[in-house]
């Protein structure tokens, strides 16, 4: 039976620094999906969550480096993160913070439920820890020179401390069954990495840290001298929102968008935590790749970053959305550059969509004809959006641009500027105008501002020429 509601989430970002475009990509992808589902299922049936992850060693040290209290620091970075994603026209329903009181209360409750079930026990941890990932490491997860591949500038710590552990290994069989569910992990190839992790033997994981080592965390409900491990705390943000908005039930399709570096936590730890606490698991974990900039990994710790505001200022919000939705790391890592974004802007937006709209508007205005709107506004009974079943925004945009090519060809073949016969000219222009109207509806989820501009211009009987949608960049 098809589920009536949809919950879409992104990973929440550490507040050690302001987000960069590599992290913003995920928000664009999730936003496009949320907008698409709102169009199909209705606004009230789709819920969209993003936010910031504000506890842990990384944030505590970042605050100290700025001579701020942890709360002052995370307040500042969270505010600036929100400003960055707002520039990208991200239509979230809530921007959650793990320092929010409702989240703290629910995180403690989930921990208590797992403890009451017997799945959390006291023990001693001795091993390796990466502060950048805020996670425990084995030697096989490090590079040959003993570095974390995701945070090569940080030193791996050797720690010995008393913690409370989560009986993760108990859920190995349950997790294997989860992985075999249809489309639980997408793309399908990501599943093999998770299966391999289980087959190598899941080890129980610490889910608290001593408060004398880390004071900036949610106090454990069972031991005042311990705080919740940041990953146990952070993952619960999805449930905090879901349970309070009546969208963490069997009628809801729950979809997490995450980067490949945190896929294991979402596909293996999170479902085990939920099962332990007697809570249903998500339906889909979509795992995207990384973005590199001019051949180098974008990373806060490397200082190799470009922020959303930098791109929006240079190219505009919809061109940035278009570029990443079509050429972003939807399945594999991709390399970007300012030159590549500019080339796509000029070739596909200025010379493509923008030129098409301008050409037709000019001819329609000159004709002084009326073009009544069609009564058929349903665009979801066609095949163009089928790849959205697998969240392949790149393929959907390719389908839309194929529609643009069809109309361009129709213009070139029929040369409406040469047609003298009034009835024939009206017939030719009507076909082309209706095509543009359809394209504007198709683009609503991907380029909402552009779709609105085209709609305002073309969804009237008398069409007039307006300024170019995408002035060509030099």
Overview of this protein structure:
The protein has 474 residues and is of the alpha/beta class. It is built from 15 helices and 16 strands. The longest helix is centred in the C-terminal third of the chain and has 30 residues, at 338-367. It is elongated, with a radius of gyration of 25 Å. The protein starts with a strand and ends in a 16-residue tail after the last helix.
Content of β-strand = 15-25%
Euclidean distance between termini CA atoms: 53 Å
Number of H- or I-type helical stretches: 15
**What structural class should be given to the helix and strand makeup?**
alpha/beta
| Main beta-sheet strand count, sense and barrel state | 7 strands, parallel
How many strand elements? 16
Shape descriptor reads elongated
* Estimated radius of gyration: 25 Å
